[in-house]
Amino acid sequence: MSTQHAGPAEEPAAVPGRLRGTVSVVTGASGGLGRGIADRLAAEGSAVACLDIREPDVPWGENQHYFGCDVTDEDAIVEVVGAIADRLGGVDILVNNAGLLSGRGSYLDVSAQEMHRYFAVNAVGALLMVQACHDHLVRSPWRGRVINIASRTFFTGNAGQLAYIASKGALTGMTRVLAHELGAEGVTVNAVMPAQVATPGTRAHSGDEVFAATRDKQAIKEFVTPAHFAGMVAYLASPDGVLVTGQTMVCDGGGLMK
């Protein structure tokens, strides 16, 4: 018996109240995937500290609080986490989303300075955030959650993106180490990887034909949106994710299988 595809799936909806009473920190929250994540966590009842180096074009919503912060500045991170704890009452959920995206170019043209710049933002910045939030996460009655936004390019190894992929690979490895080290405190640490999602950042490097080609390689040939990806983050932050740790989860419609 055959079945007929019913058309594109509806975007996932927030579960009202699921994260009520929690405080979330989302880095790189002013746009793209970060804004989608911050919106979803706030819609589920979390008080969200939205960290970025710039204010967004769209005003913040209810339960969202902006804090200016550069994740490569260790002193600024310590100061802003203290301010978040004083204002909102602690940190229960940390989403390390801030990152540098990449165009394409030969590895022969990659400088040491460029490598250090990508690692500073995409990997070291996440480490500094976890270190600054550590005491709050381990004391959280929610049992703290760390969710790192990695990249499936770590598995695909796209030519021409050496610095970006290497830095995201480092973040993926860090996730597993941190899951072991924080597991004794009941804190979960996971990495999540999106498909090629249309955001201002990705659109700066790829046109419609690239997005269409990516979709056509997927098992489910539908574009993944920020809302789809934010739903997976919200799951890991929720009570249902309390024993999921050390995992690398991909939301890409089955594209990585190809």
Automatic annotation (TrEMBL):
- Keywords, ordered alphabetically: Oxidoreductase
EC number annotated for this UniProt entry: 1.-.-.-
A Gene Ontology molecular function term for this protein is: oxidoreductase activity
Q: Where are the transmembrane segments?
A: none
| Pfam families from the UniProt entry | adh_short_C2
Q: Which InterPro entries match?
A: NAD(P)-bd_dom_sf, SDR_fam
Q: Which family does it belong to?
A: Belongs to the short-chain dehydrogenases/reductases (SDR) family.
Q: What is this protein called?
A: SDR family oxidoreductase
Source species, please?
Nesterenkonia flava
Source organism phylogeny = Bacteria, Bacillati, Actinomycetota, Actinomycetes, Micrococcales
